[in-house]
Amino acid sequence: MRTRLILAFLLVAGVSAVGTAGLTYREARNSVLQAAQDTAVSSFRDQIQLLTLTLPVQRPVLEGTLRDIAGKGKPRPWVVFAEYGTMRVSSGSNPVSSVITPELRRKAAGYPHGSFERVIKDGVPYLTVGMPVVFEAGEGAVLSTGLVLYAVMKMTYEQNQVEALVTAARNGALPGLAIALIPALLAARSVLRPVRELRRAAHRMGSGRLDTRIKVRGGDELADLARTFNESAGQLERSVTELRQAEARARRFASDVSHELRTPLAGMLAVTEVLDEDAAGLDPDTAQAVRLISAETGKLAVLVEDLMEISRFDAQAAELNTDEVDAAETIRRTLRNRNWTDLVHTDVPDGIRARLDPRRFDIVIANLVGNALRHGGPPVTVRLRTRTDRDGGPLLVTEVIDRGPGIRPEVLPHVFDRFYKADAARTRSSGSGLGLAITRENVRLHGGTVRAENAPGGRGAVFTVEIPLGTGEVTG
Question: Any idea where the Histidine kinase domain is (predicted)?
Fold first, then answer.
């Protein structure tokens, strides 16, 4: 913007300088040419009016007269030509001039006071003046003698003066533009100062400093912009503060409710376990009701635990207790603990050691495999490998692959959102709706990333977890 302002300022200055120089040049040029032209025409007319010739005019007499007129030419010497019937005479070596045009001959013969033209021949400017020689017949009548005289004067001197004017205008314009650069820089600085302040303020606000304000100077449009920014920043700060307070209250509420539900849920789970054991001795309807209560109580317990876990992430109270473990053995242990060994195919080479939080890594694998078993299709595969990132650091890469219908494109951006349901009509699920959100938070806590995509060919979904190996070493 600074460059554009300076260029615009210089453009205006340049146009003004060129316009002024052009007008000055035109007026000066016209003045120089007009002065030379008026002097020459007036002097030539005076010389013709003083002529005393006896008709018919003889060549020797006419030649002497022409030389006499040429010697008195003003403002510079002339070459004088005469046309008298078929006679062509001049004061120079050539009796005929190539710069006298037929148009001038026609005008000079038809007008008692003559005519003139400016002609350029081979790049040289000339002033040509043509006047008939007449005599008065009395009572104001004027008769032509048939003799027409032409004066031809080079205007190289005037041309040099005009070129000198052009050079002076050009030489004056360039320093003028250089001098105009100084106020252009000052103007650009004064205009851009509030813009730079606005940019810095916007950057600070983008960094989370919502109390940023701009000092208002003056009463111009930029000052109005600064006031508008301050008002908008104040409204945004108040709105964000209210939202943060509401969010904090909601998190605290979820945490408090989850914590308060744990105690009664523990008692309910104990009772449902006893009822499950005795359900076989109950009548079928009662047994079905008991099993339903037991299943729903289990789901509620999972939901409460997940709510408490996500609340810890929201409060930034989640801790990472890392240990150097064998990644393959950790995955196999997760599958054994949940009786998924026969349902999941593994491609996990031994010897890949990484610094992980075993409990949180177990939750990541369990949530991804459970999600694949519930919503994907067999076979489900867990694959483990290592690779390097862009900076050359080692990464632990874990993939969970299923052969189900895949994830719809409009669902992919939301699979890790809390309580997101791909099918709005599906109001019940065997999960809490927080599993993948908790997975993402656990991976982030390890400094890694998790992403979801469809397998090539659109058959099945692939969840990929990438976690820095930390101080672990790849030994396999």
Answer: 256-471
